[in-house]
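Narrative of activities, Objective 1.

The group set out to show that a structural description can be obtained from nothing but a protein's sequence at a throughput compatible with the screening campaign. Below is one input-output pair from the validation batch, recorded exactly as produced.
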Amino acid sequence: MILYAGEIFDAKEQDRLISELDERISKTLSEKTLSPEIVISAAEKLRADIISGEYDELLFSIGLENPERYKTLACAMLSRESLEQRLSEELGGYPYKRSTNPPNNISPRIDIKLMPLGVIFHIAAGNMDGLPAMSLAEGLITGNVNILKLPSADNGLSLKIISRLIEHEPALADFIYVFDTPSSDIHSMQRLAALSDGIAVWGGETAVKAVRALAPVGAKLIEWGHKLGFCYISGFDGREEELRGLAEHIAATKQLLCSSCQTIFIDADDDSELKRFCEVFLPLLEEAARRHSDGSIGIIARNTIHRHTERLEEIMGVKPQNPNEYKGSGCRLIIGEGTVELSPMMCSVLVKKLPRRDIVSVLRQSKGFLQTAGLICAESDRAMLSDILCRSGVTRVTQAADMSAYFYGEAHDGEYPLRRYTRIINTQS
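Output recorded for this entry:
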């Protein structure tokens, strides 16, 4: 389905609609502007819909494990206070305008203001429900015309949210165009990219490389690539509650988010400490995995086949048994070596030793992919270890239980997103 200037069209209309899009966009840019207040007003009304339970049936039908948590997060992000705070902190207020005061009159005064990039092409990933709509909202609140390509795994939630925004504020219609174009349709993707002043892409290396190949010269690439999260533990004795929080985080996210824990690093020199940790942590992870088990037939079948295949490979000698693997019900811990890396996920966690003296040298091997570090340590060490982790390339340090939590005013991957959707304009007075 396609959402085009406030109307729904069948996908077979795609070529005709794209061919008319340049003219429509040019008309909008020449005749209209979009104030943040219009977007905030629509977001407030949508927030009221969510609170009233209007989307409850859809949230349950698409298989969200914790719809109430999703509703709480969405309501927090859509609140007037949150959006106005973001405009203030990320952009210094918006619209933003001031004049220079050159020292010693070395040059004429100029006016400095922020304006939208123009047209943002959002290529969304499907690993977080509602992400396409949130990416589009960031483009809207900065005044841009937005073209959104839905991910193939989109479950209908994004289109419903965006349609309701337009119902609440019809002025948004000329600033929103949503397509379900498959990524394999390179010709259509290139046509949409050619209309854009900036391309926001969410995804891994393959997705980012593909977008770089189709992006026109001069278009600003706004990359939100896949990142890796991990937990660093310096002393785990007597910290059962923090370990339970980490286990809950792993089981709740299934390690599917950029902020999820893929690897647990232990501040130790000896492998025996890793084994002792696994013996302590495995029962806690099992308990959390049971609480968050996915009862859908597809997931049950996938996990059953995967475990049965592994057992057969071990019996046949194709895959030797790993003495450093601790298997539990619905989860496992795998002792390994090296830097942070993507785990097998679904409550399968890598465990590695990393003495604090080696933190920077080891983590720098994954520079560019680091994001969130959960930290379990003595309070007296927290500031020092947080500083070392940040100097290694990490952009978030949290309590272990809060690795995927949302915090007011936080940056995304070390940057304020709204700044990337605007440009600084200078005009001589």
